[in-house]
Amino acid sequence: MHFEFFDDFADPYLKTVGGKGVFEAGIVLGMVAFGQAGKGGSIDSAPLFKQINFGRMKKRDVMRHLARVPELTRAYHLDYAGMIESLAAHAGDFLMKGKERELGVDGNFAFSVAFLNAKKYFWTIFKSEKKTGEISQSEDETVKEGH
């Protein structure tokens, strides 16, 4: 896994262990929601999207959703389930090591950015595992454009 992209962020929250855990959790849960929505589906139709209280999340909420990842990857037969679960484990480790008790505005913002850009950051982290043709052309263009 490649996490060098964290160095590009100036936000002090993302320099903390807990902040990185929250960001990675956003990526994981975003990938699960995209998987639930299905190919060509809108992320806001995903059950997980409807359960997330954007802007008002607490650390407890993030951990609760993250704890369900192994169940959800199997229930929805998600592509790249192993990679999603390994990133979830990494995020969980950071969340447990982080000293922050709550997310606050910074954590909620970091989570939302990661969630909505999940595909981009997921493939940045797993760039060595990505093989030609594994993602659709539109997803590939999104990653290249940085959206």
How does this structure look, described?
The chain is an all-alpha fold and 147 residues long. The chain has one domain. It contains eight helices and no strands.
Chart the SSEs and their pairings.
Blueprint: H1 17-37, H2 47-51, H3 59-67, H4 69-75, H5 81-97, H6 104-116, H7 118-125, H8 137-145
Helix content: 55-70%
Spatial gap, N to C terminus: 21 Å
The percentage of residues in β strands lies in under 5%
> What gyration radius follows from the Cα positions, in whole Å?
14 Å
Overall pLDDT, averaged?
88
- Main beta-sheet annotation: none
Overall number of strands = 0
Question: What structural class results from the helix and strand content?
Answer: mainly alpha
Shape: globular
- Helix run count: 8
Uncertain residue ranges: 132-147
How many domains comprise the coordinates? Answer: 1
Order of helices and strands: HHHHHHHH
Keywords:
single chain; 147 residues; mainly alpha; 8 helices; 61% helix; globular
Brief description of this entry?
61% of the residues lie in helices and 0% in strands. The chain is mainly alpha-helical. The chain has one domain.
